[in-house]
Amino acid sequence: MDTAADQELIAAVKGALRELANPERATGAQAYMRSTIPSLGVRVPDVRRIAARAAADFPPASAGQLRATVLELWRTSTFREERYAAIDLTGHRLVARDLDMLPVYEEIIRTGAWWDFADGVSGRICGLLQAHRAPVSATLRLWSHDPDRWIRRASITSQLRAKKDTDTALLAAVIEPNLADREFFIRKAIGWALREYGKTAPKWVEAFVARQGPAMSALSRREALRGIAAVPAPQ
After folding, report:
1. What is the pLDDT of residues 9-26, one digit of tens each?
2. How is domain 98-234 classified at the CATH fold level?
3. Is the model's pLDDT at 27 over the cut of 80?
4. Nearest to residue 193, comparing CAs of 181, 175, 210?
């Protein structure tokens, strides 16, 4: 099967994005993201529509070709929306449960090095975890100790959509090594992950937060318990 990137699909994405460029909105978007990566000012729903249209017009021949196309689009992107489109393409049925996508997501997280890219693939990683629990769980446990804060954030947010299928042992295992981290994006991720699971199992989250005591930051604690009856703050 063809594993070379589909240049027509990539060109279609880039061309359609440029047609919708809005310089005024781009200035605000780049300032909001606090990024040196230029923006085209294309709205996220439009980016998703463009990626879906391009994939329909130029259907990937195989999972391997789609992986190559995603990476080529990601690596050659000069605008933030092109990177968003690359992430959107990873939702295609050919690779939705493809374990070989895990290194692709890792590259996106490491080279993107910002919260929107890390969070953009967290749902995809959740899908891989449900389909390949043992190998993905092992990888996420390793990621939770990685020097790269975005890789660690991804390990923490990897089960945001899991709900009743959340692996609580894994959730605890990726959070606990990061409790002492003073980085805002890590503390926020801890609270976010717990808050989402709290919608399914509030008692588990309450008990977990209580067990951490003062080891958990006030920010993580506040975010985790939002919407849940308050657990007394540690003295």
Report:
1. 999 999 999 999 999 999
2. Leucine-rich Repeat Variant (1.25.10)
3. yes
4. 175
Is there a contact between 146 and 158 (Cβ–Cβ < 8 Å)? no
Given this chain, do its domains 1-96 and 98-234 carry the same CATH topology?
Answer: yes
Would you call 226 helix, strand, or coil by DSSP? coil
Q: What share of the chain is helix, strand, coil (3-state, %, to 5)?
A: 70, 0, 30
- For the 1-96 domain, the top CATH level (class) is mainly alpha
First to last CA, the chain: 62
Check if the beta carbon of residue 143 is closer than 8 Å to that of residue 152. yes
Q: Are 110 and 148 in contact (CB under 8 A)?
A: yes
> Where do the domains of the chain lie?
1-96, 98-234
pTM exceeds 0.90 for this model: yes
Element (H, E) at 139: helix 133-143
Which percentage of the chain shows pLDDT scores above 90?
90
Residue-averaged pLDDT of the chain: 95
For 27, 37, 80, 81, the CA distances from 157, given in Å and listed in that order, are 29, 24, 22, 22
pLDDT in tens, 131-159: 999 999 999 999 999 999 999 999 999 99
Q: Output phi, psi for 34, to 5 deg.
A: 50, 50
d(CA 21, CA 48): 15
Looking at residue 1, what DSSP letter applies?
-
Judge contact between 5 and 68, C-beta under 8 A.
yes
Residue 178: closest CA among 199, 202, 157:
157
